[in-house]
Amino acid sequence: MKKKIIFVGVVALLVDVVTKILIDNSFNLMETKPIIVNFFSITKVYNTGASWNILSGYRIILIIITILMFAFLVYYQTKFILNNRNILTFGLLYGGIVGNLIDRIIYGYVIDFLDFTIFGYNFPVFNFADVCIVLGIFLLIIAIYKKEDINEVNSR
């Protein structure tokens, strides 16, 4: 793995860990503090599942899936041109994946706290690691669309 990707991943992981520690030490479970009324709040929740609480209570399965996904991405990364965007892409993905994996292994749940209501819909509460993963996936889709997969580029 390239040093720049590791650096981005470590920075993302550190921001995730620090924010979770701050929230966990400053809020009671289910406590909410509105930041922007009817739009954004900090709400401390413990999520034993994945997105939208999918597979709630299946900790070992989620840990195994996460480790397999991480291994797949390490392999998949080798197929991409490592430009600045792709370095950011894989760094964000690794940092986010490891951030939530650490929570699942240590606590048995993930600490979530970012709570948005948009057009009346209250989105599931999430954390910085989730933001990194979603941004990483979005950037990965752009890279695939731009055909930055080395095998695709070389096969032309």
Give a written overview of the molecule.
Helix content is 57%, strand content 15%. A hairpin with a 3-residue loop joins strand 1 (32-36) and strand 2 (40-47). It has a 4-stranded antiparallel sheet with strand order 1-2-3-4. It is α+β, with helices and mostly antiparallel strands and 156 residues long.
What is the number of strand segments?
A: 4
What is the CA-based Rg, rounded?
17 Å
Provide a count of the helices: 5
> What structural class results from the helix and strand content?
alpha+beta
Biggest beta sheet attributes: 4 strands, antiparallel
What is the arithmetic mean of pLDDT? 93
β content, as a range? 15-25%
Low-confidence region ranges:
none
Helix content: 55-70%
What gap, in angstroms, lies between the N and C termini? 26 Å
Placed side by side, the strands forming the largest sheet appear as 1-2-3-4
Instruction: Encode the helix/strand succession as letters.
Output: HEEHHEEHH
Given the C-alpha coordinates, what overall shape results?
globular
Give the SSE layout.
Layout (H helix, E strand, L loop, with lengths): L2 H24 L5 E5 L3 E8 L11 H19 L6 H23 L3 E9 L2 E2 L5 H18 L4 H5 L2
Antiparallel strand pairs: 1-2, 2-3, 3-4
Can you give keywords for this protein?
four-stranded antiparallel sheet; 156 residues; 5 helices; alpha+beta; 57% helix
Short recap of the structure:
With 156 residues, this protein is an alpha+beta fold. It contains 5 helices and 4 strands.
